[in-house]
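Morning run. Coffee first, then this:
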Amino acid sequence: MVFFANSNDIIVVDIEVTEKIDDRYLKSFVLSNLKLKNISLENCDKLYVNYLEYPKEYQVFLVNSQFIFFDFEAFYSYYENRDFEGFELLIYSNFFLIFKDKKFFYYQKINQDLNQDDFIKFLNKKFNINISNIKLVLKDEFEKLKKEFTQKNQKINHKKNINKDGLKYIDLKSNFSFYIYIFYLLSILFIGYYFYNTYFNIVEKKEEIIDFESIKSKITFNSFEEKFYVISKNIDKNRLVLNSFDYRHDTAKIVVSSSNKENIDKFLESCENVISSSTHFNEESKIFEATIDVGKL
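And here it is:
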């Protein structure tokens, strides 16, 4: 295990949305967008997301499981005995951070010198905030903060993946709970059938065969992730960007965008059970955006 992942070990992806994604569908939404951006998760089995209410954007952090903390978490030691309210910009050599009321707000890598005044104006406008303090962090100071943070967090259960302050952990492992539940139901049915024949049907001595295929067909589960995968595959095929996906009461509201309207039209033609659709062109970004209501996926 390695204690800190530095900026070179972290992959950060920004995903713009029109509204916050329901937590039930967040994993599928994020994985679909990473796939569209050709980002593989084979070597990145820890995934965190940070939602920014303004400008409605998800930050996705991918890191290998060998790392315990992001190195920028060391700045919690900086704030531990310091009173501060509002937004503060912390600039290091290859990344910058924004903290709000001593809590993590935003992180991004940098690879060039910044014009400080223009940069602050940009951040204030992007996030609709007012940065009240700026701190340039030197290497020696950062190393000292990391050492202090390490000493205070050595006893934490590092094998347990949990949400970090401001970052939501997404478990990339498959969820087999439903299939365990199906197995449990089948076991109960089998045991009940066995005892019925043994204790209540002895006289008849009639051998019956359980039709497991019939039982399974009655409790067939249509996996939401399978449905979403079909849609995301279709989106990928037509070179579209998935902006949002909202699934409620057996209907889905899908928002996709593309610089080519023909790609959206092809996607609509391949969709089944389309209730309604609308497409508009954003003059500023030169992008077509379509909102599609689909019933009975």
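The two ends are 43 Å apart (CA to CA). Good start to the day.
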